[in-house]
Amino acid sequence: MKRKSDASWRPAEPAAGNGILSRRVFLEGALVAGATGAGLASAAAEPLPVPRWMKVPGANFVPYGQPSQFESKVVRGFAPPANPATQGIGSARTPLHLLEGMMTPSGLHFERSHSGIPDIDPDQHRLVIHGLVKQPLVFTLEALSRYPMTSRIAFVECAGNSGALNAPQPQPLNVPAIHGLLSCSEWTGVKLSTLLDEAGVDPSARWMIAEGADSAAMSRSVPLAKAMDDALLCLYQNGERVRPSNGYPLRLLLPGFEGNMNVKWLRRLKLTAGPAMTKDETSKYTILLKDEKAWQFVFPLEVKSVITRPSPGLTLKGPGFYEISGLAWSGNGRIRQVEVSADGGQSWAPAALAEPNLPKAPVRFRLPWQWNGGPAVLQSRATDDTGMVQPSRAAFAAERGLRGNYHYNAIQSWRIDDKGEAINVYA
Q: If you average pLDDT over residues 109-135, what whole number do you get?
């Protein structure tokens, strides 16, 4: 570790107000003054004691690995249904504030269900492609597994993610309660365009109706252009078969499009000349505006970011050096820049973006912060490679109003008090 006597040492440079430091701390490995003493024991301490787990053999092998017992709090949060009698309707949210990197473990991937998780026998499951095609096709899973496979890392986000921030007053909620309907996996399967080419698309086809095999037969209309572009029929998630709560044995992936369109338990694809106006795209998933109008068929999720650390429930342990970290993503492409503020948006500094920075996938951002122990309001603002900039809450409300439930992407604000505790605020 570098010391002040080293010729290469230099203090970190301020980059914005209220203790925000230059990202060069991460990009160049510079040492922050005072950071070396944060929670470290002296090198001259007594030799380490031999703990009990070094004195006996450890546990034996198990068929399927599990997390450490000491990580029992790293679990999903559940949002109960509005009506307890409606079984299987609700969501389980990813604990983003307790995770690192960009990937979500399969067991922590968020879940949104309209009628529970069906127990599907993969040997009996079928996928049919029909409608405006030259030759309708029916596939077993075994048949699909013979096609060339491709993998991509992509996020899935519920259109209603962050909808709690539409409330007139800020609610005392943490990261998963507000933003936990976002997860990222490596998805592996067959390009949908391959199967559509085999079926032969009729020139009059412009849309595709995707239907799931749950008891709600959840269905959405998808532009054919998206189906022929980067849509994937997923058999695997993070290297293993797709989890039941995420669509086993087959799900549709439409990178960057709102989560509900990525139909789980996929059983049917029908090509049509127009959208079907299903119950799942008329009663829900339209963007209600302030002037009594609504946007329908707005599919890509807009540029967005959230600071996951510090955040509510992760109390700072006294003044000193901290890393501000979070995730940024866009359904329109790659994240070009993330800026961070500690003074409620009065000044901003660019954060370091971790690799890999992939299109339609979250990127981890980091920025060093020297907290002086006083009040602070932390914010992040993302820009994607189309030039779209994450709006302030005031700008978002001015354009759309705050009456809707979907596609909320305004800047999140966490206020840090002098005890180091964070709360959700509007700034």
A: 96
Residue type (1 letter), 290:
K
Beta carbons of 365 and 338 less than 8 angstroms apart: yes
**DSSP one-letter code for 54:** G
Q: How much of the chain is in helix, strand and coil states, percent to nearest 5?
A: 15, 30, 55
Burial 265-299 (b: 16+ CB within 10 A, else e): bbbbbbbbeebbebebbeeebbbbeeeeeeeeebb
- Predicted TM-score (pTM) of this structure: 0.92
Among the listed residues 153, 171, 188, the one whose alpha carbon sits nearest the alpha carbon of residue 329? 153
Q: Which domains does the chain have, with CATH numbers?
A: 127-162+172-280 (3.90.420.10), 304-425 (2.60.40.650)
d(CA 32, CA 263): 47
> Which token pair is 203?
């020139």
Cα angle: 91, vertex 412, 258; to 5 degrees: 45
Q: CB neighbours (10 Å) of residue 109?
A: 22
pLDDT tens profile 214-232: 999 999 999 999 999 999 9
Cα-flanking dihedrals φ and ψ of residue 234, to 5°? -95, 125
